[in-house]
């Protein structure tokens, strides 16, 4: 048995660095990577696959903090400088007016008029330039947050029969900011979770880190405590997941050595990681304590929907592009989704869940057809999860790409070792991740499937149509997630694929 505690670290690009933090909520230290100048990027241009973005130092350190993980260590910017104050005022006004969904049952004429007046105020804005915004990642993130919330408020406050014509004063700066950040222009997980938190109670120090019990949200669509509880469940998962990221780093250090001592240490790390993942499951289920399912389904979730979730299939028309040939017509227009969580993707990649899963139970000629169908579904799920990475910070995408290209994959190490304790520890992590996905399905059943059934029944009653006819029509349309997926089928597939990554003995039993 060797002791490699003094051995040099592997030569790979480091996965984690400690951020310098921000001395104030509205400014960052001059040496912080968010404050460094950004070279101009080609608007509308996406990076080729496999090419890391190097427009800021965040491409080197992946913007992953050892203390807060994918969350920024200090409160995200809460207000843009005065030059872009009009955008902030528009968002504030939406909150004051308590805008209602355009398809709200029983919406009053006064509510419709208030929404129309608010939308008109956007059309009357000048097209504000982003010349100075593009120099700062810090400012760009806030601009995307503000403008993407305005976009979804604008679209979903429209009457359901109205065309979706997004005015140039919103289109142009939103697409420019999105191009700089290499993000779609829609509201996403980074906007309503990662960069949407603040301290619930002001700490004594401006450099205080976020804690699980002192979090609040900056921006909400519905201004309901239920919406805040929904976002904060994910925020807490990301924050608690920091330990899992640290365990990944420690494990990868050991994979470089791959000796007997490494086996013992990785076994210990994986045992701890399984416990952490099970705590993430508890945090996920805690959403039930503060978020009412009916309020979520009817008053909150509709604001999330992207163009691919519009029930009538209305296109989103971005006006003003004819004057800006450098801007591309947006293609990716999904809404925020749990599938955009960088932490969950990191767990999948580190454990090799999707890459190594071997779920298939059919035999004979039918097995070939079943296997083909299974492979096609698996490829579709993988393609969706890969597409969801487009909605992440490009630095987090780079982190995941780097993690997936690790030359010493954990699963290969576990399989080669034949160490029963290590195999069991790995399997416990996979089981914990499968249980996490079981809980996600419980949440989906509670917050989407159940209320959707109730909403259909209420619609049938209002329409006074025969239940058989309406039932057939409802069954013809599978429930979609805000990321545009067939929700139940997708989640079951991901859950089963996770379980398929378990190591088994010669009798097919998991270690």
Written account of the structure:
- There is one protein chain.
- With 511 residues, the chain is mainly α.
- It has 2 domains: 178 residues; 226 residues, Methane Monooxygenase Hydroxylase, Chain G, domain 1 (Up-down Bundle), CATH 1.20.58.480.
- 52% of the residues lie in helices and 2% in strands.
- The strands form 2 sheets. Strands 1-4 form a two-stranded parallel ribbon.
- Helix 2 runs antiparallel to helix 3 and helix 9 runs parallel beside helix 16.
- The longest helix is centred in the C-terminal third of the chain and has 44 residues.
- It is globular, with a radius of gyration of 24 Å.
- About 15% of the residues have low confidence.
Any idea what the CATH architecture of the largest domain is?
Up-down Bundle
Kindly provide the radius of gyration, computed on alpha-carbon positions and rounded to a whole number of angstroms: 24 Å
Biggest sheet strand line-up: 1-4
Order of helices and strands: HHHHEHHEEHHHHEHHHHHHHH
The global form is globular
Helix percent band: 40-55%
**Protein structure class:** mainly alpha
Q: What's the CATH first level of the largest domain?
A: Mainly Alpha
Largest sheet: 2 strands, parallel
Indicate the mean pLDDT. 83
> Might you state the CATH topology name of the largest domain?
Methane Monooxygenase Hydroxylase, Chain G, domain 1
Number of distinct helices: 18
> Strand fraction band?
under 5%
Give start-end ranges of low-pLDDT stretches: 5-60, 358-371, 469-476
Measured between the Cα atoms of the first and last residue, the distance is 25 Å
Number of domains: 2
């Amino acid at each position: 048995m060797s002791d490699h505690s003094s051995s040099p670290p592997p030569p790979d690009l480091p996965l984690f660095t400690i951020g310098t933090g921000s001395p104030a909520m509205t400014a960052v230290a001059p040496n912080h990577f968010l404050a460094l100048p950004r070279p101009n990027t080609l608007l509308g241009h996406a990076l080729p696959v496999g090419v890391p973005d190097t427009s800021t130092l965040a491409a080197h350190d992946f913007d992953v903090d050892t203390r807060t993980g994918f969350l920024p260590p200090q409160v995200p910017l809460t207000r843009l400088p005065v030059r872009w104050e009009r955008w902030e005022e528009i968002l504030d006004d939406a909150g004051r007016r308590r805008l209602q969904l355009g398809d709200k049952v029983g919406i009053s004429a006064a509510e419709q008029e208030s929404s129309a007046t608010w939308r008109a105020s956007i059309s009357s804005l000048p097209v504000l330039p982003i010349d100075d915004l593009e120099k700062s990642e810090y400012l760009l993130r806030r601009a995307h947050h503000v403008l993407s919330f305005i976009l979804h408020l604008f679209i979903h406050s429209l009457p359901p029969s109205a065309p979706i014509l997004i005015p140039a004063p919103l289109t142009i700066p939103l697409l420019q900011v999105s191009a700089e950040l290499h993000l779609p222009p829609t509201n996403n997980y980074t906007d309503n979770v990662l960069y949407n938190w603040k301290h619930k109670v002001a700490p004594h120090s401006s450099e205080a880190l976020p804690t699980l019990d002192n979090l609040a949200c900056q921006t909400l669509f519905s201004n309901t405590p239920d919406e805040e509880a929904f976002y904060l469940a994910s925020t807490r998962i990301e924050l608690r997941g920091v330990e899992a990221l640290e365990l990944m780093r420690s494990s990868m250090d050991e994979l470089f050595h791959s000796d007997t001592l490494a086996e013992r240490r990785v076994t210990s790390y994986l045992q701890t990681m399984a416990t952490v993942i099970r705590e993430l499951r508890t945090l996920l289920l805690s959403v039930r304590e503060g978020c009412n399912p009916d309020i979520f389904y009817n008053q909150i979730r509709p604001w999330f929907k992207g163009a691919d979730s519009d029930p009538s299939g209305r296109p989103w028309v971005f006006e003003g592009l004819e004057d800006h040939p450098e801007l591309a017509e947006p293609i990716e227009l999904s809404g925020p989704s749990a599938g955009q969580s960088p932490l969950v993707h990191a767990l999948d990649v580190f454990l090799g869940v999707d890459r190594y899963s071997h779920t298939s139970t059919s035999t004979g000629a039918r097995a070939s057809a079943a296997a083909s169908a299974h492979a096609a579904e698996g490829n579709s799920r993988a393609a969706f999860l890969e597409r969801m990475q487009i909605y992440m910070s490009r630095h987090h995408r780079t982190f995941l790409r780097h993690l997936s290209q690790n030359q010493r994959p954990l699963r290969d190490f576990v399989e080669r070792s034949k160490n029963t304790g290590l195999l069991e520890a790995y399997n416990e992590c996979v089981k914990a991740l499968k249980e996490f996905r079981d809980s996600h399905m419980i949440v989906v059943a509670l917050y989407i499937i159940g209320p959707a059934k109730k909403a259909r029944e209420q619609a049938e009653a209002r329409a006074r149509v025969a239940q058989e006819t309406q039932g057939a029509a409802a069954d013809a349309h599978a429930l979609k997630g805000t990321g545009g997926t067939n929700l139940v089928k997708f989640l079951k597939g991901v859950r089963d694929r996770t379980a398929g990554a378990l190591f088994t003995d010669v009798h097919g039993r998991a270690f």
